[in-house]
What does this fold into?
Amino acid sequence: MINHRHADKFCLAAMAAAVLLTVVLLFGDFFGITRASASPEYAGRLFDAERVHTIDILLDGWDAFLETAAEEEYTLCSVVIDGEEFPRVGLRAKGNNSRRLTAEYGLDRYSLKIEFDHYQPGNYYYGLDKLSLDASFQDNSYLKTFMAYDMMRHMQVPAPLCSYTWVTVNGEPWGLFLAVEEPEEAFARRCFGNHYGKLYKPDYQSLNAENADVALRYTGDDPANYENIFRKAKYDVTEADKHRLIEALKILDSGENLEQAVNVDEVLRYFVVQVFVMNWDSYLGRTGHNYFLYEEDGILSILPWDYNLAFGTYALGMTDPIRDPNVLINYPIYTPADGEVMRNRPLYHNLMKQEEYFAQYREYFEKFLKGYFENGLFSVRLRETAEMIAPYVEKDPTAFCSYEDHRLAVDVLEQVCLLRAESAGAQLRGEIPATISGQMEYPEPRVDASGIDLRDLGDFEDLEKAG
It folds into this structure.
C-alpha cells in the first residue's frame, strides 16, 4: 500500500505520464513516431470504396488535350472531387500499350494521372500527391483491377487504395473510372510509416533488350547496370541507396540467406495472388514489369500494380496467345511460366528452390483459397461492387463495351475466379499437376472450363466496335 506521504508524488507522476502519453498520441508524427492504426485523411475520403465518388475536370481546351494525349505531357487544370475544388493540378494521359491502342482505335477514353503538386509544391489532396483514373481498358467487367487489389489486401500485401469515380469534364459526363492511389511518397508513408524506404517502378525502355535489372537479376556492382530501376525511382535516391539495393540483388542471386535481402513472408503472399490471377503482363510474364519494388534497410519487397490484363486475358505482343480456357484456368501454380522465364525471375525462382519457403507458399495459397473463396467472401465482394457501379456503367458515354457486354463480363469474371480457385485447390491436393511439365504429361485431370470464353472479359473486337 502506498503511504500518505508518497501519494501526492505518485499522483503527480501518473498525471505527468498521462499528459506525455497524450502528447505522443496526438503529435507522434512530429516526433517521428508512427501510430500503427494511423490512416491518412484521403483514405477515408476519395478512397472510401463503398460508394461512387465524383471528379469534375475543369479544363479549357479539352479537345486539344485529347489530341496531344499520346505525348503524356502535363496540362494545368483544376479538379472538383466530391464537390470540393482543388486548383492548379497537373493532368496527363497514362499507360503504354493501352494509351497507344486507344489512339489507334480512334478512341478518347485514356487512363489519366492527376498530380496535385506538379505545378504547385505542397499542393495535396488531404495528403495525397498523385492518383490515377483507370479507364478499364480491355476490362468489360470494370472489376479486374479492383478485385486484384482486394485480393492483395486480403493477403496483407501493401496495395494501392482504389474506388470508383464518375468523371465529368467541365460538367459534362465522361465516364466511370477507377481512382487509384499512385505509389509515391504518400503511399509509402501510409504503408510503411514516416521513416519509409525507397520505392521504384522498374520498367524496360525496349522490350527487345535483355532487361536483366527489370527481372531483378544481379549483373555486377555498377549502378549503371540497373538503369531501368534507378531512373524509375519515385523520389530521390543516393549512391548509398543504390549500392544497398544492388547488394540485396547480389544476395538474391546467390540463392542463400535470402531473408537478409528479401521480405520473404510478404513476397510469398504477393506471389500467391499474382499466380492466382494469371497476370502475365507482370514480373512472372514475358515483359517482367508492372510491379513496384520497395527497399528498406537492404530488404526488398515486390508490390502490386496494373491488372487490367489479368485473369488470363493478356495477349499483347504474343504471336500465338493461349485462348483455351482449360489451359488458362488450370495454369500451374508451382511453375507459372516456362523454364526460361522462371530461371530469369530470381525473386520467384530462388525462393521456390528453398523447401521451407516453397512449403510456406503452399500454406499461404491454402489460406487464401479458404479465407477468400470457400467462405463466399469473393462472390459477395464482387456482386456488391458490380451492383453499385451498374447504373454508372449503363450511362457511361465513353465505355469500351455495351452495358450488356459489361454484365456478361461480370458473370464471366466470377466464373473464372471460382473455377481457378477450384483448380488451385486441386493442384495443392495433388489431384491436378501443379507444374507445366506435369500437365503436359498428364493433361486430363483438369477442372472443366470449356464453357468460358475469356474474350468476354474484354477483347480487341470490343475496341473496334467502340471506335
